[in-house]
Amino acid sequence: MSDTTTEQNKADALVIENLHVAVEGKEILKGVNLTIRKGEVHALMGPNGSGKSTLANSLMGHPRYEVTAGTATFRGENILDLAPDERAHLGVFLAFQYPSAIPGVSVANFLRTALVSLRRERTKVSDEELLSGATPTGTAEQAVAKAAPKVSIPEFRRLLREKLALLKMDESFATRYVNDGFSGGEKKRLEVLQMAVLQPQIAMLDEPDSGLDIDAVRIVSEGVNAVRGPEIGILIITHYQRILNYVKPDYVHVMMNGHIVQSGGWELALELEQKGYDWLREDLGLPEGYAEEQADQQEVANAGAAK
């Protein structure tokens, strides 16, 4: 493989190195290393409180998660230095474990607003310009608007219908208010629809199977499979192997006590389903008290997220 090809592959990957993250002074992640390339599907498994959701939220820029060391490089930039919207502009996406409802805002309008925002050129407007209203080319609002290419109604309608059809979703879904009165399965399907419309290059799905029955898991999984491909790298965070029966990952990683302690292929998920996590703890010689420490971490993380 040539040096040029190697550099291109590296540029197309999210490379996480020695990532340490704390919540309210409590260290949750303790040196995570992980590389996710476009075209790959990774599954991150582990017991409650092991740090899986902390990884996703810190990579997306949640303010409650303090990065104390490490880097996360994508397309030549350390995304940890960027605001959440700038990470999204680079092509990083997070599907939430607990999506919020937005009464009064339709799915179609929500998606079009998000798409327009992502197509906007990454342009900085200084605080002085925002306060004074004056820029070399006009007002601050005009400067921002100029950098935002429009998404025409016909163009967006075609795109939305194409993605709804891809995910086998009825077009009436787009007229409903965002997550307002949605079932658990519908909320997770909307997260997948966002991924399909916004077309990120790296997508993290935080427990897309959480709270779903087996039929809903299958339907959500079909949506993920419809979106996966050579132009997107996917990280699925889950406790259980069942979603991986439908979305077969290229790599499976196990997180315990803030570390990725084991990596392997799909067969590792099957082994975890059969044996649980205790055998791995014993096999790796992890201390007996790790479960109690994880429970403390979970409480800290939940408290921070609720504020």
CATH structural architecture of the largest domain: 3-Layer(aba) Sandwich
Which percent band covers the strand fraction? Answer: 15-25%
| Principal-axes shape call | globular
According to CATH, the homologous superfamily of the largest domain is P-loop containing nucleotide triphosphate hydrolases
Order of helices and strands: HEEEHEEHEEHHHHEHEHEEEHHH
**CATH topology grouping of the largest domain:** Rossmann fold
What does this structure look like?
The strands form 3 sheets. The chain has a 6-stranded mixed β-sheet with strand order 6-9-10-3-11-12, with helices on both faces. It has helices spanning 3-11, 52-60, 84-90, 107-119, 127-132, 140-146, 153-166, 184-198, 214-227, 266-275, 278-284, 290-306; strands at residues 13-23, 26-37, 41-45, 66-74, 77-78, 92-95, 102-106, 177-178, 202-206, 233-237, 251-256, 259-264. α4 (107-119) packs parallel to α8 and α8 runs parallel beside α9. 42% of the residues lie in helices and 23% in strands. It has 12 helices and 12 strands. The chain folds into 2 domains: 3-101 and 196-306, Rossmann fold; 104-178, no CATH class. The longest helix is centred in the C-terminal third of the chain and has 17 residues, at 290-306. It is an alpha/beta fold and 307 residues long.
